[in-house]
Amino acid sequence: MSGKRKEWFDWFKALSIAVIITFFIRLFLFSPVMVEGPSMLPTLQSGDYLIVNKMSYTIGDPERFDTIVFQATESKKYIKRVIGLPGEHIEYKNDVLYVNGEPILEPFLEDKLSHLNENQSYTFDFALEDIPGGYKTIPDGYYLVLGDNRNNSTDSRRLGLISEERFIGKAQFAIWPFNRIGLVS
């Protein structure tokens, strides 16, 4: 093989290996996703690009307040926050989250809630029994998810509980725009 031909072949090999590695990383480990719509405001904005860790729930379970990406329809992915875990009863009263009757703070909403008037509500009152399915507690393998922008979010209040089988992964890092680069809280 001539020197020029060998150089081209070496470049082709290196490029092929890089493409294969990238394919496997994207397929099994990490994937980019773009936020579409206002449902996660103020935490995430429409047009933000995120890196989703696909392995996070292969080696661990979703935790309360994780920001997850799940397959909503065959062609649509949604980004929401895990609020209710299996075995729990969830209820909202006067903008307070109750898990099994105990109030739980939602730190990511504190700023938004502090700017409401007395007669305004950010999360309209509801209980687990009010959402599709009418469950008393969340069954194993299912989660209650809500958008941070509670007045403009298609989430478990409309879709029902979300099966962990539909989870793509945990949104962990914002990569675009540059002024919003960082960990997803």
TrEMBL record:
InterPro entries named among the record's database cross-references: LexA/Signal_pep-like_sf, Pept_S26A_signal_pept_1, Pept_S26A_signal_pept_1_CS, Pept_S26A_signal_pept_1_Lys-AS, Peptidase_S26
Molecular functions per Gene Ontology: serine-type endopeptidase activity; signal peptidase activity
Record's keyword annotation contains Cell inner membrane: no
Enzyme class label: hydrolase
GO biological process terms, semicolon-separated: signal peptide processing
Keyword Kinase: no
Substrates-to-products reaction catalysed: Cleavage of hydrophobic, N-terminal signal or leader sequences from secreted and periplasmic proteins
Enzyme nomenclature, EC number: 3.4.21.89
Annotated active site: 39, 80
CC per GO annotation: plasma membrane
Domain spans labelled Peptidase S26: 9-176
Spans traversing the lipid bilayer: 12-35
Keywords: Hydrolase, Membrane, Protease, Transmembrane, Transmembrane helix
One protein family per Pfam: Peptidase_S26
Localization annotation: Cell membrane; Membrane
Membrane association type: Single-pass type II membrane protein
CDD domains: S26_SPase_I (cd06530)
UniProt record similarity statement: Belongs to the peptidase S26 family.
Protein name: Signal peptidase I
Lineage of source species: Bacteria, Bacillati, Bacillota, Bacilli, Bacillales
